[in-house]
Amino acid sequence: MSEIELKFVTGDNAHHAFSQRVLPLFEKNSIQVNSHREMRLENDYYDTDKLDFQNNKMGFRVRGNNGEYEQTLKTNGVVSGGLHKRMEYNVSLDNSRPDLTLFEASAWPQDWDVAAKTRVYLNSLALTLLAMPMWLAWVKVWLRLCWTVAKQVQKKPVPQSTK
Questions:
Q1: Residue of 36, 47, 74, 126 with fewest CB within 10 Å of its CB?
Q2: pTM for the structure as a whole
Q3: Phi then psi dihedrals of residue 35, to 5 deg
Q4: DSSP class per residue in 142-154
Q5: In CATH, 2-155 is 3.30.360
Q6: What is the distance in angstroms between the CA of the first residue and the CA of the last residue of the chain?
Q7: pLDDT in tens, 72-89
Q8: Would strands 142-146 and 149-155 be described as parallel, antiparallel, or unpaired?
C-alpha cells in the first residue's frame, strides 16, 4: 500500500483547536466527518546490529492495540515540506514478536536477503506509548485525520549509520 502522510508539529492544545476550528470547516464545506475514537497504541521499533533498516532508510515496527498486533515495514520514500510519501507494508501477528518472513518478497529492496536477516537478532530501539485521537473524513477518498501524543517509555542509544 502506498502511504501519504502530512505531518505537523502542534502544541499541547491541538485536540481542542482541531475540534473548535478545523471540524467546523469540514462541515461548512459539506465534508462528511465521522468515527471519532481514540486509539491507545504501543509501538516497538527494531533494527539489526548492523542497522540494516536505518542504512536503507526503512523503518520496522510492531504495533499493539488492545491485544492485537501488526508489524509494519516502511520503505524509503520522499519527504517534502512535511509531506511523507512511501510504500508501507502491514502484516497481522498473533503476538508481539516480529517475523520478517511474513512480508511479501516484493516489499524488500532488491538486494535484501530476508533469510539472512531472520537469522540475526533484531534489537528493540525504542518503545513508545501513543494516544491517537482519530477521525475519518470522506473527500472522494477516506482521509484519516489524527495526531499522536507520545510517551517515550524506553529509548536505547542508536549507533550512527554505517553508510
A1: 36
A2: 0.69
A3: 60, 45
A4: EEEEE--EEEEEE
A5: no
A6: 27
A7: 999 888 877 777 788 899
A8: unpaired
